[in-house]
Design goal:
CATH superfamily of the largest domain: Tetrapyrrole methylase, N-terminal domain
Largest sheet: 5 strands, parallel
Number of domains: 2
Structural class: alpha/beta
Order of helices and strands: EHEHEHEHEHEHEHEEHE
Number of helices: 8
CATH class of the largest domain: Alpha Beta
Number of strands: 10
Length: 244
């Protein structure tokens, strides 16, 4: 745990509440007013990566007790957090960025708290998924989210082929090192689709690339490993001619 706060809220007569708190995807100033209030008030902040959360709290002058909820000794840590809820202490669950449980292991704590009968509520906040769709300009009426790319080129090919006849907009959180592979696969399977690469959204060096897979491959040779990339692929248009 990190930095014990001095003005800990007194436990209530009943069980504590688990607050699912959305955090900024880039700029620390995107934290909502309600999220700021909750993070100042709770007894414990359960973080995906405590050091990342500590930087956010420091930016806003918040001094709270932070603990990790995984992945090491996850079952034991969840048990400790559930005991805190039983004792009447409120807990805020946060991911490194965006909404907990979206490409994030926080769902296990949420499910455990619900199963145990403790109050659970959400403090909505930024999401890279919806932010990237909005930036792309593609339809957001139907969205397919793929949090993790398949591990091999063959499985990536199979996955993209399954998307060939679908009309929903596809959103992928892709490691920067795998973007060239993804674009080459898109070039072979969905060459006419519009693709958006939303890079480091809301940060000072935010970049947006848009075009066909072929045009993007000419623009994107490589990306730093620290780069956060959200890939948005336009769904099949009604008048699109299939390549297969």
């Amino acid at each position: 745990m990190y930095r014990e706060r001095q003005d800990v809220a007194m436990p209530s007569n009943g069980p504590g509440t688990l607050f699912i708190v959305g955090t900024p995807i880039g700029s620390s100033d995107d934290l909502t007013i309600r999220a700021l209030t909750i993070l100042k008030r709770v007894r414990i902040i359960a973080a995906e990566t405590p050091l990342v959360t500590q930087a956010l709290l420091d930016h806003h002058g918040i001094c709270s007790t932070i603990t990790s909820y995984g992945p090491v000794n996850r079952d034991e840590k969840i048990g400790v957090l559930l005991h805190q809820l039983q004792q009447g202490h409120d807990i805020a669950l946060v991911s490194d960025s965006g909404m907990p449980a979206v490409y994030d292991p926080g769902r296990m704590l949420i499910a455990s708290a619900r199963k145990a009968g403790y109050p659970v509520t959400v403090i909505p906040g930024p999401s890279a998924l919806t932010a990237a769709v909005a930036l792309s300009g593609y339809s957001g009426d139907r969205i397919a989210f793929e949090g993790r790319l398949p591990r091999t080129s063959r499985l990536v090919k199979k996955f993209l082929e399954s998307f060939r006849h679908k009309h929903e907009t596809l959103v992928i959180f892709a490691p920067s090192r795998r973007c060239p592979l993804l674009l080459r696969s898109l070039l072979r399977i969905l060459p006419g689709r519009q693709v958006t690469l939303a890079i480091d959204m809301t940060k000072e060096d935010e970049r947006l690339y848009q075009g066909t897979p072929a045009s993007l491959l000419k623009q994107i040779r490589s990306l730093p490993r620290s780069t956060e990339v959200t890939v948005v692929v336009e769904g099949k248009m009604r008048n699109e001619v299939s390549t297969k």
